[in-house]
Amino acid sequence: MSDQARLSPGDTAPAFDLTSDTGEQVSLASLLSGDRKVIVYFYPAAMTPGCTKQACDFTDSLDSLQAAGYTVVGVSKDAPAKLAKFRERDGLTITLLSDPDLAVHKAYGAFGEKKLYGKIVEGVIRSTFVVGADGAIELAQYNVKATGHVAKLRRDLGLSA
């Protein structure tokens, strides 16, 4: 398992400019307006059971996360049209971003070797990052579980679960 591309707290968050589920261009710089922080999470595929659970958990927590100064974006390799279907099907209110060539995944260390059912495969590593208003990584979590992750993240951020 290769860890060299992984980000750590204090690292500068890699910049990105991706297309959202609504067709808008969204950049990390635009999300870091004012003193907002950004939660960027990477997930393997829209409309799969684990990814749906995680996206719904983020949607359910969105109001309180926003009140605490956080913006949430989910990133996958899915096309914007599929992301729009995902949002509509599950009533998601978080912003979903498309990274079809996996360049942003790789910049964040969220794509590479991982264990799947005991085998080492190459794929998306379910990961979550908190980017501070200054553009630095405040929290980097790799290989997170889809279920229960948002509650754990809230605890890690000192927010009530």
UniProtKB/TrEMBL annotation:
Report the residue ranges that make up the Thioredoxin domain in this protein: 7-161
Keywords from the UniProt entry: Antioxidant, Disulfide bond, Oxidoreductase, Peroxidase, Redox-active center
Has the keyword Chloroplast been applied to this entry? no
**EC number(s) per UniProt?**
1.11.1.24
The job of this chain, per UniProt, is described as: Thiol-specific peroxidase that catalyzes the reduction of hydrogen peroxide and organic hydroperoxides to water and alcohols, respectively. Plays a role in cell protection against oxidative stress by detoxifying peroxides and as sensor of hydrogen peroxide-mediated signaling events.
The UniProt entry's sequence similarity note says: Belongs to the peroxiredoxin family. BCP/PrxQ subfamily.
Supply the name of the protein. thioredoxin-dependent peroxiredoxin
